[in-house]
Amino acid sequence: MLSDANNDSGFSVLRFYADSIFPPLNYQAEPPVQTLSVTDVHSVVYLINLLVAMNRDVTDEAGSKEMDTGMCISPSQDHNPENLPYVHKVGVPPRQKLLKQFTTSVKETFFAGNPFRPFKGQSRLGKFVLALQAVFPIVSWGKDYNLARFKGDLIAGLTIASLCIPQDIGYARLANLPPQNGVYTSFVPPLIYAFMGSSRDIAIGPVAVVSLLLGSLLQNEIDPVKDALELGFLIDFLSHAAIVGFMGGAAITIALQQLKGLLGISNFTRKTDIVSVMRSVWGTIHHGWNWQTMAIGISFLAFLLLAKHIGKKNNKLFWVPAIAPMVCVILSTFLVYITHADKHGVPIVRHIKKGINPPSFKEIYFTGKYFGKGFRIGVLSGMIGLTEAIAIGRTFAAVKDYHLDGNKEMVALGSMNVVGSMTSCYVATGSFSRSAVNFMAGCNTAMSNIVMSCVVFLTLEFMTSLFKYTPNAILASIIISAVVGLIDVEAVSLLWKIDKFDFVACMGAFFGVIFVSVEIGLLIAVSISFAKILLQVTRPRTALLGNLPGTAVYRNILQYPEAKKVPGILIVRVDSAIYFSNSNYIKERILRWLTDEEEQLKKKGLPAIQYLVVEMSPVTDIDTSGIHAFEELYRSLQKRDVQLLLANPGPIVVNKLHASKIATLIGESKIFLSVADAVRYVPKTEEP
């Protein structure tokens, strides 16, 4: 703090110079125009510098007693007398106890949103209500539920029910399961989700991709090599690009599989690759195709695609593609019934078991030779289902401007599938087509899922016999029209424009699924995504920085060609955390930058590099290998007579630099808050 004496003396000097430059004016008269000479301007500048220096001296004197010795202080004015003094420091955060560091890390990792904050200061009853709302969001939004909201949910629920029942029967066949299992899956899981899910728009039920996955994986014999690959673990490495490619490939594979029902082929391959499927299709062209089935399937497929096109062109006609599948089922069933087409070779559904879901928990086994494979298939299909559901939910949540809780979604989806496994259901998740119809139909809450479940319940109890004469070709047409939307050409085009590596991952997954199998497509996608992660970690980006003219800002000279290099100084930025996997590369890359720069300077006859500044703002962490790499870099630079300066290390990094004594080795006075401070430290090198 400035003393009173210092204040008085400082302001006395200020008044003296001010009075000498600007004589007192008589404000009762018109103020004369004051013209400053060059001498006056220099006097003002001198006065300002004098006051800054006085303030600096007093601040340094008062702060030196309180300053933590761990602070990395920028150098004094002696290093560069031409610049104004500055007092920037790199702070060293206080050390935390190991237990506190661990608990903080766990909290940020698993409880980032601090879910227990609302419970503070609440009574026991209040805490119970909050806990109930956290587990069952229906308790929260149900308080304000009214008839107006129910009207929208009722219309949406009836609309998606008309869509889901034909789809469920078709998806069950795709998964090689009895048709009633598909309908069961649209009864119990949506009820559970309505109570536990946080999305207002997701419509729950079986989906095409997961059905294909189950059907293709479950029909294969156990393969020790594939089992050892632990696909459920590797699914964590699926990037968005890989998922886009996988979904597109799966959509085409699903459509190809439906050629059996669409063309009425009885002997069809069990393989899913396009070569085997097309060989099976063309091999039966003379004796396996049924023209009545083809006529029914192709005509109704055209109708479904037309209905979907109408719905896209006019949002007010969203109900047209929603009810189109049920209309197709009713018309085709009636047509087959009155024409007895089933007696002329048209395959039909024949029988759907009547009644609601029978219990199946007695069929769940946790031992046996199939447990390992079943576990991995469950994890794999669960991860894909979770990814699809959360992607859908977040899309609609962003449109309606509400928060989708990812943790609640995981709990809700997991709970409904656990209960579903005990009630004869297979994997359920959020459906793209169903959720889009639900949204367009004006749903307000998850009550639309309850309405859909009620309709499915009535269907199971009273109307399953009506589907006896439904032709398989109609189910194939419904599935083909549903999966067309999974092929996202615009997303693929965007991947090509943004990131070629992502495009390769997308195409790898796409062609792997189409030409080999679903499992191989997933493995290719995971492998490419994993390779990208390895490249990004082991080969991080580095950049040479230059000064933007007229500023104290230093930026990448490739991004800003106008940025000028500072004579005698090489400024390098590391754009990654420094770990054992990349520390040696970073050290060698910096030395290569230095070698290349020195060669260019030597050719031009310019002064050699004397200082190397490493900008560490993007370096979020560093391990022991990174510390050793910096020590080796420092010693290599010493041999070249180049001094190492560090700019803006973060709190974790600067703590480790001090703990490892690297800060002492380099010199605490050579660690700066910014690149500008580091450059200001260096004596100016005269340009030729």
Automatic annotation (TrEMBL):
Its main location: membrane. It is a multi-pass membrane protein. The keyword Transport applies. GO terms for biological process: transmembrane transport. The chain crosses the membrane at residues 231-256, 289-306, 318-338, 377-399, 411-433, 439-460, 472-496, 508-531. It comes from the Eukaryota. Residues 559-682 form the STAS domain. Keywords: Membrane, Transmembrane, Transmembrane helix, Transport. Pfam families: STAS, Sulfate_transp. It is found in: Membrane. SUPFAM superfamilies: SpoIIaa-like. The keyword Transport applies. GO terms for cellular component: membrane. InterPro entries: SLC26A/SulP_dom, SLC26A/SulP_fam, STAS_dom, STAS_dom_sf. Belongs to the SLC26A/SulP transporter (TC 2.A.53) family. This is High affinity sulfate transporter 2. It comes from Quercus suber.
